Amino acid sequence: MAGSGRTAEISVQEISHDRRSELEAFDETKAGVKGLVDAGVSKVPQIFIHPSESSGDRTLSTGKNPVIIPVIDLEAIDKDPVKRRGIVDKVRDASGTWGFFQVINHGIPAGVLEEMGAAPVANWRDTFFSYMAPYPPKPEELPEACRDTMMEFSKQVTSLGISLFGLLSEALGLKTDHLEKMDCAEGLALISHYYPACPEPELTLGTSKHSDNDFLTVLLQDQIGGLQMLHQDQWIDIPPVPGALVINIGDLMQASFSFIIDQLVSDLRILISNDRFKSVEHRVLANRIGPRISVACFFSTSFQPSSKLYGPIKELLSEDNPPVYRETTVNEYLSYFYDHGLDGTSPLTHFKL
């Protein structure tokens, strides 16, 4: 028995070494996943295979009664007080029940969305990342093919983000500018993902299961699909809606505001909302069809050094609704997030009181 255990131990070490060597070799090519596809790869390399992801839960949620996340029309939010109250109610319900929703009539021109989706740019994807606020890059630091579009898109998303933080503030019974004054909209990072067609999509993922370590995410996805969220222990699709943007609550928002949703089905919580809003896990499936292109914009204050403490909003607390999380800086939270890794458990549990 001792010999069998030793053999198993050596095998694990050898596998770990081989994987590291393969990753280094892949990185040295500088060709990305697109390079593999262009070279005609017919099998997914071992470094991309996700053995922990069973094939049984990877199917898109189709059927007679598919679950559909809310689509919220933002038209006239600044012109019609009655419509705005109705929109606030929908945002409150979607943020507390789902943690995800899509928005239409959001004010970003269709041409900007189309241009952003057409910009060229160990999951089955290639990625371009850039900080866009509060200190935007110099234009010459961005790829010439997409720099103007990225700058304009970031400007438009920032404006939309301020509007969304206003709706979320009102949904919590706070003044419209409460979250903006907390600097929730101060920092913006933009990540463009390019997912080539995959020869064996059942063996890998486009993006592994995770929740977002920010306040709020605005996502532009094309019409191929593949984005899923975990709802009531089941993976459900977030199908593309032409002209719509996907909005989801991040961990830092959950922890700051949440406490009213304790009776709901999910155990996930959001820091500044003291669990009133939900940050839910999501992923992207690999697909035989491609390429799939998406652009995610993350609102956070983690992009510059700050000692500012974030915790449950005091106006939301009472004797009956005590704080669920302790105060923390964004940098402390992110340090734990990166050390913790994506192991299927929420980093928020580390900050619970």
From TrEMBL:
Cross-referenced SUPFAM superfamilies: Clavaminate synthase-like
Transcription regulation recorded as keyword: no
Domain Fe2OG dioxygenase: 184-302
This protein's record includes keyword tRNA-binding: no
One Pfam family per UniProt: DIOX_N
Gene Ontology MF terms: dioxygenase activity; metal ion binding
Keywords for this protein: Iron, Metal-binding, Oxidoreductase
Entries under InterPro entries matching the protein: DIOX_N, IPNS-like_FE2OG_OXY, IPNS-like_sf, Oxoglu/Fe-dep_dioxygenase_dom
Family: Belongs to the iron/ascorbate-dependent oxidoreductase family.
Listed PANTHER family: OS03G0690500 PROTEIN, OXIDOREDUCTASE, 2OG-FE II OXYGENASE FAMILY PROTEIN
Descriptive protein name: Fe2OG dioxygenase domain-containing protein
Protein's organism: Salix brachista
